[in-house]
From TrEMBL:
It comes from the Bacteria. Residues 3-120 form the Response regulatory domain. Pfam families: Response_reg (PF00072). This is Response regulator receiver domain-containing protein. InterPro entries: Bact_response_regulator, CheY-like_superfamily, Sig_transdc_resp-reg_receiver. One of its GO terms (biological process) is phosphorelay signal transduction system. It comes from Candidatus Electrothrix aarhusensis. Keywords: Phosphoprotein. SMART domains: REC. The modification 4-aspartylphosphate is found at residue 52.
Length: 123
């Protein structure tokens, strides 16, 4: 079974993503910020990380940069509502840093699940 780490400071979004990924058949763990997420990542093995981009403690851009440098094979999906600037600025930057896919909040959960399955080669 494939393992997914979800990093998002919004508790409702984090819970929604966890339930959706579990329903799709994945093992899931979650963290409320990038620092906690990277600590989990270093302690466990994950095939894919879904990370929000705007969070306290450590933002998603830093998380993506660290993961890409130290774990180049992990698949990464960036998600963002964009905050004051808007997702049209953050999401392309996340892709440039090495995210495999990016979604602007709100997004259809089935599209996210399909992208996760494609990235992990799961049918």
């Amino acid at each position: 079974m494939r393992n997914i780490l979800i990093i998002d400071d919004d508790e409702q979004m984090r819970n929604l993503l966890c339930r959706a990924m579990e329903y799709a058949g994945f093992e899931v763990e979650a963290a409320a910020d990038g620092r906690k997420g990277l600590r989990l990542f270093e302690e466990n093995s994950y095939d894919l990380v879904i990370t929000d981009l705007i969070m306290p403690e450590q933002e998603g851009m830093e998380t993506i940069t660290f993961l890409r440098k130290n774990h180049p094979d992990v698949k990464i999906i960036a998600i963002s509502g964009g905050g004051r600037i808007g997702p049209e600025t953050y999401l392309p930057a996340a892709l440039e840093l090495g995210a495999n896919a990016a979604f602007a909040k709100p997004f259809p959960i089935d599209e996210l699940i399909n992208t996760v399955k494609e990235l992990l080669n799961v049918t």
